[in-house]
Amino acid sequence: MADQVKIVVAGAAGRMGGRIIHFAHGDPGVSVVGAFEAPGHPAVGRPLAEVNGPAGLDLTVSEGLSEAAPGAEVLVEFTLPEPTMANLRQAADLDLAAVVGTTGLSDDQLEELGVLATRIPVVYAPNMSLGVNLMFKLVAEAARALGDGYDLEVWEAHHRLKKDAPSGTAVKLYRILCEATGRDPANAAVYGRQGMVGERTDDEIGLQVVRAGDIVGEHTVLFGGLGERLEITHRAQSRETFARGAIRAIKWLAGRPAGLYDMADILGLT
Fold first, then answer.
1. pLDDT tens string 117-145
2. Domain 5-124+239-267 carries which CATH code?
3. 111 exposed, middle or buried (CB, 10 Å; 0-12, 13-18, 19+)?
């Protein structure tokens, strides 16, 4: 199809890379033209169908972006912070748009991502679930409406293999709460409590983390008042929800001007 968006997928042998490849291959608006892994990865040089791809996709896992990129329009990145930034620099040089769902980016890396987005269009979202991105808006509205007098806590749970903590989604929820309530994000966070910590302060926001089993992803924001509490919760039951969001982002991003976008732009929530 002439109007298919041609994509190249990083981390082709990974959990998210594989889900995105499967969903993209089944979508008439998207075409997977390249898939790659880091140099030295055991999947490099193997048929994608044997590694993590659908049987009908005749591609070989390439070594790095430059080898996989010819013919592509959009880089899809759900790997780790360092390779993500290296691939984004290369994508900017190759004039590729990018959809990025990598979590755990540092403040410096986020700043560089913003600079790269002045050269190419980038959708960056730590969570591409449509439900989670609606949750972001609901949490902001609840925090502004409730005002002072409610204690704020963010709780998240993920599978035992997740490397960063708190999750990128939990960090974004925390930052949304800070912005909505006028708190300083550099000072408000409390990461767990132990011992005689005393009464909680008016400014603190707790961030609690669970890593266990095969939990796909759960996030709760708790507003604790006197005599009542409000909880806003999202539970992901499958990585398919993230892959579906990524496909929607890919199709939305094609043809956009350079700039840094997020899922709120795609959902019309801005």
1. 999 999 999 888 889 999 999 999 999 99
2. 3.40.50.720
3. exposed
Catalytic residue numbers read: 158, 162
C-beta of residue 107 within 8 angstroms of C-beta of residue 81: no
**For the segment 26-64, what is each residue's pLDDT rounded down to a tens digit?**
899 999 999 999 999 999 999 999 998 788 889 999 999
The dihedral built from the CA positions of residue 257, 263, 267 and 269, taken in this order, carries a sign that is negative
CA distance 12 to 117: 24
Q: List the domain boundaries for the chain.
A: 5-124+239-267, 130-236
Is the peptide bond preceding residue 166 cis, with omega within 30 degrees of 0? yes
Residue with tokens 């609901």: 138
> Whats the size of the chain, residue-wise?
270
HEC sequence for 90-123: HHHHHCCEEEECCCCCCHHHHHHHHHHCCCCEEE
CATH superfamily of the domain spanning 130-236: Dihydrodipicolinate Reductase; domain 2 (3.30.360.10)
Token digits for 81? 């912070």
Tally DSSP H helices, then E strands, for the chain: 9, 12
Query: b/e per residue, 245-268, with b = 16+ CB within 10 A?
Result: bbbbbbbbbbeeeeebbbbebbbe
Phi then psi dihedrals of residue 235, to 5 deg:
-125, 120
